[in-house]
């Protein structure tokens, strides 16, 4: 005769953690997946990097990748955002930092320049420019996760400085776009075309100094 199943109140705990959607995600696995995704998307392109490859590179199962990010588009967006946050952390855009406004603008400019001239960023930019390589939805996903986040954070900083009387800017959104366009300069286009490598520290510093000085001459307090 089969023994009856004991009531829930009398069952012994199994000692295994609960599973299901409410279970906390493993942050270590998430970080490993993001790192693998950043490298593979940059090296292989969006279409060339498979979820199987990303899982293998991260040392996890494909099911684990999907449980953390849902689908490939979401993982791509998360990888782009993670790269931007890694090289342009939110602390760079905090209003009440010690030091001069020029020093803060230079720190942001240097971090942005290092990001856009990195091997991963140049590879991703080339991938985005190939017609038919990825669809418009994914291009918007990339823009919102990367450039738009940076522009919005910088625009908020500029508005605060205008309110403090440190800057005189009629249109903060335009000024934000101008700042990052200045920082990109000609060198980013040349790198994308494969005409030059990443500039040395001295050349980068001279370029950043000139751009920040120009920006402050245009929008500094009169």
From TrEMBL:
Superkingdom of origin organism: Bacteria
Keyword DNA-binding among record annotations: yes
Start and end residues of each stretch annotated as Disordered: 1-27
Protein name (Swiss-Prot/TrEMBL): TetR/AcrR family transcriptional regulator
Domain HTH tetR-type: from-to ranges: 27-87
DNA-binding region: 50-69
InterPro entries (alphabetical): Homeodomain-like_sf, HTH-type_TetR-like_transc_reg, HTH_TetR, Tet_transcr_reg_TetR-rel_C_sf, TetR_C_Proteobacteria
Record keywords: DNA-binding
């Amino acid at each position: 005769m089969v023994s009856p199943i004991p009531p829930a109140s009398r069952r012994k705990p199994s000692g295994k953690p609960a599973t299901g959607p409410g279970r906390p995600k493993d942050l270590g696995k998430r970080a490993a997946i993001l790192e693998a995704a950043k490298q593979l998307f940059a090296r292989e392109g969006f279409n060339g990097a498979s979820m199987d490859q990303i899982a293998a590179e991260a040392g996890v199962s494909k099911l684990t990748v999907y449980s953390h990010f849902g689908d490939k588009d979401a993982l791509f967006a998360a990888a782009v955002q993670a790269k931007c946050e890694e090289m342009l952390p939110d602390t760079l855009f905090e209003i009440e930092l010690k030091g001069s406004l020029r020093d803060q603008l230079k720190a942001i400019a240097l971090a942005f320049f290092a990001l856009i001239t990195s091997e991963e960023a140049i590879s991703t930019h080339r991938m985005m420019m190939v017609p038919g390589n990825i669809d418009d939805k994914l291009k918007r996903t990339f823009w919102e996760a990367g450039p738009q986040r940076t522009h919005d954070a910088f625009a908020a900083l500029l508005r605060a400085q205008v309110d403090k009387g440190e800057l005189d800017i009629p249109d903060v959104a335009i000024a934000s776009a101008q700042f990052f366009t200045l920082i990109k300069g000609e060198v980013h286009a040349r790198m994308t075309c494969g005409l030059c490598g990443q500039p040395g520290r001295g050349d980068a510093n001279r370029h950043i100094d000139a751009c920040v000085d120009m920006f402050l001459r245009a929008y500094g307090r009169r």
